[in-house]
Design a protein that fits this description.
Blueprint (H helix, E strand, L loop, with lengths): L1 E6 L12 E6 H6 L2 H4 L9 H10 L6 E6 L3 E6 L12 H11 L5 E7 L4 H10 L16 E9 L19 H22 L7 H15 L4 E4 L1 H6 L2 H7 L7 E7 L7 E12 L19 H15 L5 E11 L11 E3 L5 E3 L7 H14 L5 E6 L4 H6 L4 E5 L2 H14 L3 E3 L4 H4 L10 E2 L9 H13 L6 E6 L5 E2 L2 E2 L4 H7 L7 H6 L17
Parallel strand pairs: 1-6, 2-4, 2-5, 5-6, 9-10, 9-13, 12-16, 13-17, 14-15
Antiparallel strand pairs: 3-4, 7-8, 8-10, 11-12, 14-17, 18-19
Length: 522
Amino acid sequence: MVKITYSNFLTKGDPQETPVLIVGRLTNLLRLKYQDIKCKLEPRVTEEVFKTAVYSLHPSPTDTCSLYLNLATVAALPTKCSRHNTPSRSHAITRLVQNCSVGVNESIVIVCERSDVFASGCAVARAFPLYSKKTPAVNNENVNVFVEFIIVPSINGKEPEENMELVEITEEELKVLEHASYGIRMTARIVDTPCNEMNVDYFIQEILNVGSALDIKPLIIRGEELCKKGFGGIYGVGKAAAVPPALVVLSYTPTGASTTIAWVGKGIVYDTGGLSIKGKTVMPGMKRDCGGAAAILGAFYVAVKSNFTENLHAVFCLAENSVGPDATRPDDIHTLYSGRTVEINNTDAEGRLVLADGVVYAHRDLKANIILDMATLTGAQGVATGKYHGAILSNNGDWEDFCMQAGQTSGDLLFPIPYCPELHFSEFASAIADMKNSVADRSNAQSSCAGLFIGSHLGFDYPGAWVHIDMASPVHNGERATGYGVALLSTLFGSYCKQPLLNTISPNIDVKEGAPKKLKKN
């Protein structure tokens, strides 16, 4: 088990006893004086060796140089950063930490500007996943990773000053990284855990654990009660599974709140595809279909720990899309919580059904005026925006911009997809119900259409801000979950927190209004 600790100052350490990785953009490493870093290197690394190593770095895209065996290393992040990437180069930080970690108590020194502290710290958390069922080694001991920051002043394209003064950051500001690290690693652990250990019952227990830590008791509606209360989407998807589906809500309502925000997460703990069953090559990995709900759970923990100032509800739509005598059939018609009827033409398009119930509950019952849903919704997302960028769809142009900005600042990248219901929603036309659940033409903005299905139940005339995030691809990197979404939501809603670091990096949202007074054209 790896424990990560964040610090705003460097502690003295001998690389022989505590290995050290020093990582930063080359421009920032070149600005460092040996005096700034020598407490981590002496007596093993001299000033001459350190300077020679830094000047030898040629990141393409990254580069490393050993300072002392494999126990002291300096690493340079990519120099170039395009306008749709994160300036923190957080993805490169995660890879470097994974490659350079020696598996014992160690220090990681991040040399960065203040604006990159949060994303860089979160990147380290992603490098140390929690879930493993490998047989432990005989000497399997807990490992401490100490993440320490050297914060250099921003130069904003100017020539760096010869005698720069390092920027200070307080312990209070760094406290959010402790919470974010916990949230990211918990989220990744849930997503990495197979369904025999993370079914709906187990997921509810994860929610109960977070609720207990925050002194919040969740609302739980499950099984036949879902059917009686009209949650036809969640019930229809999960009714064939051995463990019944559930709608679970965590609510934080501080005194003086004037805005109500709801985060709605897709929590399909396993997706066989239902009777429209997936093949043997695409079904493995479907334990990750709960990534949206897991991210919202992690982000909710961070928000409450950061003294969120407004009403915040986390809505978890939990089900296993299984096969059995009670499974939903293609041609079945379900009435969702919105009251609208859906003809099922693809049981493998189930996430939009559970989320449709979730967003309507958020609007109708929780009275939310800002609703964000997050889901591993479509394979088309990866085709549209790739492995690193989630897809953002919104009825509000300003919130689309906010999400883009928060993605770049947090390292959980986003890119917009078309919001154009008048051109795309006809893909769901049904002769016998209000709509079908899957598109007629899979080549016509498929990821947008999936989001529009959810939005249609909320209503295209919904007066509040609605944001849909499809993160099917960035939820994992290879065989491992990334914890995607926790840093994103923490940054996006940072202005609603009493946390100085989040306040400085979050988009400039009017906290009282919940949305800009002058909206851009949608």
